[in-house]
Amino acid sequence: xxxxxxxxxxxxxxxxxxxxxxxxxxxxxxxxxxxxxxxxxxxxxxxxxxxxxxxxxxxxxxxxxxxxxxxxxxxxxxxxxxxxxxxxxxxxxxxxxxxxxxxxxxxxxxxxxxxxxxxxxxxxxxxxx
Length: 129
Hints:
Blueprint (H helix, E strand, L loop, with lengths): L24 H12 L4 E7 L9 E8 L3 E7 L10 H14 L7 E4 L6 H11 L3
Parallel strand pairs: 3-4
Antiparallel strand pairs: 1-2, 2-3
Helix pairs in contact: 1-3
C-alpha cells in the first residue's frame, strides 16, 4: 500500500565542468565546492600536451587560492602509498612544473570522501583555508 509513496532519492546527474565531462562524481562535487567557495580554477589542465601526446598529463584541477596549485582526485584504482612507477613519475613531473614538493600536491582520495558533503568539507579544509 505504501510502497508507491516511498521513493529512493534520485542520484544527482553529473554535469559538465567548464565544458568538459568529469571522470567521476567526486570531480563533479569538487567543482561544485570550488564554485561555492569562489575559488578560481581550471578543470582538466593539460600539461605537456595532455592526451594529445605520449607523456602528456591531465591535472584534474588547478586552483588559485592563494597560489597556483594542482589538485588531483584519486579514485579507488589508486593505491595510497603504492603508486606504480608511471604514476609516481607523473606526480614528480607535476611537482617540478609547479615548483613544489610531491607531498604538497593536493590529493583528494575518493576513499576518504563518501558524499558530496564530505567533499565540500575536504575542499573547505584543504583548499579554501
